[in-house]
Amino acid sequence: MEKKNVPKTTSLKKQIIDFLIQMPLFNQLDSNELTLIADHMNFFEIKKNEILFREGDKGDYVCFIVDGQLEVIKEAATGLGKVIATLPAGRTIGEMSIIDHTPRSATVRACTDTTLVALTGKGFDLILEHHPRIGIKILKGLARLLSMNMRKTSSRLADTL
User: Which of 9-13, 15-19, 50-54 is the least confident region?
Assistant: First the structure.
């Protein structure tokens, strides 16, 4: 993953905030809270076919897809990877890693050149420590997101059985 080494200017911070406003995960936060969260986020870019992370890698950040598309690949019992999801702009990937600190559950590869905003586990921990009310709102948003993902997965599983 290639990190843009761009100082966080007012313009860059505003771009992050404008993006976060659109994310259901952050819909319980006001503009001051979003500004604080933006201080802990960075833009990243990955090129088409580049791997964001591999199944089994240590997970320490969550990504929000600003532009582009990612595919989620799960290793099957045969050892071959199977695409289980394609994620467009506006979706989130890696949210479990900042909650449970376990290895990545799948490989994620860019289908197109992709721009991401990332929140590291360290940044999230700092928010929780210094701004617990904001951290609780984020945790509730993550719980809603994970619940929604679990419901979709259960429905897909039922359809295939």
Answer: 9-13
